[in-house]
């Protein structure tokens, strides 16, 4: 199995063995194009909607040689809700979807919901039946420590963690972008804070994204910033684990998702979840999720109040929850690629070479 990558300037090339530690390696080192033979597999593991169509000639040469093309599909959201994304993202996704429809040998989806949406899109826009593009499903793991986690705490982290350990707070994890529902969540907490000084704090973890500049500015300037509203910067995986461990519960207000990893991560930390009632969250099937509906801030505030009052907030820490791990994800991915695997990831039996798209810029 060889990691490969591409950029806007050059096609798919071999990555260095230490590519996880040197993401800009291609800018400094000699670029060596991928060499293939019949029976190889190319796995587009990254979301690279802007790159696969760009290097179509190279990839189609591989296909003519006998390489099978497998592509991870995380969601179709830029096609379904273009108003939530920059216009170039929608354009890239349209080109990528056309590429998938014509050239891919297998789509590997991260949920049954994404698989259904993909097949429906291909039917509506290209008149393709579900059998035209074989599709499989894999889970995503939630065990952060098994995923080459980032480490380190910024200078102010210890003070914030010390404060939060003595203060009930609700955690939200995700990029500050339109679909994540931070606007509704903030309005709901503003309503709660006006009602009582005993209401919990809100902690947001996620970088500033697109089309939310006004909201980001409001978060920075908010009267409760640093008091009951916190948006820590430079949050490593190590830092995030501390926040999961200390929080009272996790709010997932996303208006749409391909999967919803914070739901699984919260369950792994035995934390209760309040989530918007989306089919994909129902699909995850964890027993301790409370669902809410609607876009109104006051209705969400009522849902938060009811959720916080539930006894399970005090008892869930003692109740184990079974969640999927990255080992499970790896096993399912290998099976989706056609490998024969035993009960361990290291027990894969195959003579097929795999070129895994591990970095794309």
TrEMBL record:
Name this polypeptide is given: Glycosyltransferase family 4 protein
A Pfam match: Glycos_transf_1
InterPro entries: Glyco_trans_1
SUPFAM superfamilies assigned to the protein according to its UniProt record, in alphabetical order: UDP-Glycosyltransferase/glycogen phosphorylase
Residue stretches making up the Glycosyl transferase family domain: 166-315
Natural source organism: Comamonas endophytica
């Amino acid at each position: 199995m060889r990691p490969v990558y591409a950029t806007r300037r050059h096609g798919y090339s071999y990555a260095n063995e230490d590519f996880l530690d040197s993401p800009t390696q291609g800018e400094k080192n000699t670029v060596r194009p991928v060499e293939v033979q019949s029976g190889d597999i190319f796995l587009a593991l990254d979301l690279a909607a802007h790159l696969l169509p760009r290097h179509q000639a190279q990839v189609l040469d591989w296909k003519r040689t006998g390489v099978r093309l497998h592509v991870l599909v995380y969601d179709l959201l830029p096609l379904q809700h273009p108003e939530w994304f920059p216009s170039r993202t929608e354009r890239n996704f349209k080109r990528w979807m056309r590429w998938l429809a014509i050239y891919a040998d297998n789509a590997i989806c991260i949920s049954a919901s994404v698989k259904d949406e993909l097949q429906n899109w291909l039917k509506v826009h290209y008149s393709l039946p579900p059998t035209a593009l074989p599709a499989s499903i894999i889970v995503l793991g939630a065990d952060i420590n098994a995923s080459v986690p980032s480490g380190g705490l910024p200078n102010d982290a210890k003070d914030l963690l010390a404060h939060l350990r003595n203060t009930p707070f609700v955690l939200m994890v995700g990029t500050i972008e339109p679909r994540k529902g931070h606007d509704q969540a903030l309005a709901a907490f503003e309503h709660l804070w006006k009602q009582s000084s005993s209401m919990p704090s809100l902690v947001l973890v996620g970088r500033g994204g697109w089309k939310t500049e006004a909201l980001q500015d409001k978060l920075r300037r908010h009267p409760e910033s640093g008091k009951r509203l916190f948006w820590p910067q430079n949050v490593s995986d190590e830092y995030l684990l501390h926040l999961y461990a200390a929080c009272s519960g996790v709010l997932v207000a996303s208006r749409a998702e391909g999967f919803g990893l914070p739901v699984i991560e919260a369950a792994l930390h035995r934390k209760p979840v309040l989530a918007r009632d989306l089919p994909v969250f129902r699909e995850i099937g964890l027993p301790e999720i409370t669902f809410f509906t609607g876009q109104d801030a006051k209705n969400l505030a009522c849902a938060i109040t009811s959720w916080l009052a539930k006894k399970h907030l005090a008892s869930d820490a003692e109740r184990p929850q079974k969640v999927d791990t990255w080992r499970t994800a790896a096993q399912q991915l290998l099976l989706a690629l056609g490998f024969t695997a035993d009960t361990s990831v290291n027990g894969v039996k195959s003579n097929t070479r795999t070129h895994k798209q591990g970095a794309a810029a």
